[in-house]
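Section 3.1: Structural characterization of target chains.
Under the original work plan, the team committed to producing a structural model for every single-chain target entering the pipeline before any wet-lab resources were allocated. The record below documents one such target. The sequence was received from the expression subgroup and is listed exactly as submitted; it comprises 194 residues.
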Amino acid sequence: MSLILVTGMPGVGKTTIMCKVGDELAKRNVPIAGFYTEEVRDPRAGGDRVGFDVVTFTGQRAALARLSSNTSTKAPTVGRYAVCVEEFERLAIPALGSRNSGAIATNGVLLLDEIGRMEFKSRSFGASMDAIVKEVSTGKLRFVATIPLKSSGMEVIERLKRIAGCQIFHVKPSNRDEMYGAVRDAVLRLVSSQ
């Protein structure tokens, strides 16, 4: 078993779980690579959400998306957000590529929050995900990711779900506290199994 997927509605706590898992692995000196997404809020606009950033587990940050009304480019959109493909790729693709370093490949974990429609506006992200699916399916990579609850039509996610031994955790408001413990324990078993 080398794959754990965490799903649930937006805002339910998937990112919080992934960040806590990343912290737990770092405390145990387990090498990690990847990134998580974080909402960007504008305090001048009453704290309204104005976009999303991608943040690596080493603390580097770049724009993933901004309100399309705030951008003048012809960027691809998802809902009311324009995806900042170049900024995203500049940070996220190298973070995914670092899974090929010796430490991650032998005893580490790739953490990814999230595999979503915004991220797939990047062709490079799609190509990286294809490579990740192959590595996970052959047991060469331990992978923990969040996926949207409504992921129909997202072929890469369907391929991941079909990998033997895939564990899927469904986070809800009613179970989010205990779900962190369940995901953490599953990740620690994943790390100790190699």
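Residues 176-192 form the longest helix (17 residues).
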